[in-house]
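User: Hi! I have a protein structure encoded as tokens and I'd like to know what sequence might fold into it. I'm fairly new to this, so please keep things simple.
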């Protein structure tokens, strides 16, 4: 099982989701069964670490994002991942424009797994520190819902 989180530049929201989801998988003993990655629609930050404010906010909750590096979405990702989850509507539209017609993966908004099918994770980049904390809260909700779905799926697999 492979999960890809996607935002605009891969330095705030999607690495936060990657870090939180990795931690949840480790806590549940599923890290060996689910691969997690993140990327951005754009290439502005390729190779860079997550935004310092993102790293600091995550670290306050015990999540280490220091080893992550930004990368851009590749066409191959659509075949490689089972879940491709966008942080907002613009990211989703860009992904849908690039996705193959015969996509055999779940492509949608991340917060649908938080019971909010049309909600977006707001980009905190130009905001205050509170915006980074709000992103963590939303991402934790989505990650818990996604984990429940993936656990159910894995239980049905041999």
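Assistant: Happy to help. Inverse folding works backwards from shape to sequence: for each of the 158 positions I chose a residue that suits the local structure. Here it is:
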């Amino acid at each position: 099982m492979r999960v890809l989180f996607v935002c605009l530049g891969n330095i705030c929201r999607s690495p936060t989701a990657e870090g939180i989801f990795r931690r949840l998988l480790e806590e549940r003993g599923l890290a060996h069964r689910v691969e997690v990655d993140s990327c951005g629609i754009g290439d502005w930050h390729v190779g860079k670490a997550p935004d310092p404010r993102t790293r600091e906010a995550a670290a306050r909750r015990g999540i280490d994002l220091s080893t992550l590096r930004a990368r851009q979405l590749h066409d191959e990702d659509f075949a490689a991942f089972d879940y491709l989850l966008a942080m907002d509507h613009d990211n989703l539209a860009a992904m849908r424009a690039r996705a193959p017609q015969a996509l055999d993966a779940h492509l949608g908004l991340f917060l649908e797994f938080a019971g909010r099918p049309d909600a977006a994770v707001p980009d905190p980049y130009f905001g205050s520190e509170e915006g980074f904390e709000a992103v963590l809260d939303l991402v934790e909700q989505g990650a818990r819902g996604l984990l429940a779905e993936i656990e159910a799926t894995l239980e049905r697999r041999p």
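A useful reference point when you look it over: The chain is about 40% helix and 15% strand. Feel free to ask if any position seems puzzling.
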